[in-house]
Write a structure and sequence with these properties.
The protein is mainly alpha-helical and 71 residues long. Helix content is 39%, strand content 8%. A two-stranded parallel sheet has the order 1-2. The longest helix is centred in the middle third of the chain and has 12 residues. The protein is elongated, with a radius of gyration of 14 Å.
């Protein structure tokens, strides 16, 4: 399962909120839909991921590593 954090999309918060969120992301940016899509494509490819079972992939640019969350 892919578990994305802040990812740019049309129904997400206003850009000011996204900018404030970037301070908590080690990668220095909000995620792009392609970040999630690349993981999905990898997992869908039996040749590349056929031995992976029952995992949760956190796609958050390092937010959980810092363990800092905006209030």
């Amino acid at each position: 399962a892919g578990m994305p954090a802040a990812v740019e999309c049309w129904l997400y918060a206003p850009i000011a909120t996204l900018c404030a969120c970037v301070r908590t992301i080690n990668a220095g940016r909000v995620g792009a839909p392609s970040d999630v899509a690349e993981l999905v494509a990898f997992l869908a490819d039996e040749r590349q991921s056929g031995f992976i079972t029952g995992q949760q992939f956190v796609i958050d640019g390092g937010v959980t590593r810092k363990m800092l969350y905006p209030e």
